[in-house]
Amino acid sequence: MTPEEYTQLKAFARVDGAYLGVAWIISFAFYICGLSSPLLGLLGTLIAVLSPVFAAIRLGKFRDNARDGIISFRRAMAYYILMFLYASLLLALAQFVYFAYIDGGYLVSTYSAVMATPEAEAMLKAYGISTQQMQESISALAQTEPIYIVLNILSMNVTVGIILSLPASAIMKRAARPGSHGQQTNS
Q: Where do the TM regions start and end (predicted)?
């Protein structure tokens, strides 16, 4: 891969990462709103679950429009990982602003209220978790600094991107057809 091709790959991945990051921010906002409105929570979950498909579609558009329909497995993998990295950084920024300046204990108080219901206590008992253990976990969450929460989510998102890049790249790679004058890429 030439330096120009690498610059092109990063530039397109940044744009697609921004699209993906905005989708994740919307999903996160719907999750927070979904704590009091289950329909929004479901919509947020749906957006999150479909985001790897969206990322694969954007990878296909990069392959077809910027790479003339040809992309190697390694280049597709690099593109997908960079897209997830940029999206994760954008989401981390939004989540830090939320947890540091907006939340004000809403998430922890909502979790506490939900876990105090008889249904939640029965569920915890079925899984062998005591109410005391759950309260300690919620208390630990309340004492965790926003930056640590965000860094944990950031690292999970990047790891998921690396893992999902393998099947997405295998599906989206495409070599030049024999006899065509397209550029064969090995990187």
A: 12-32, 38-57, 78-101, 147-168
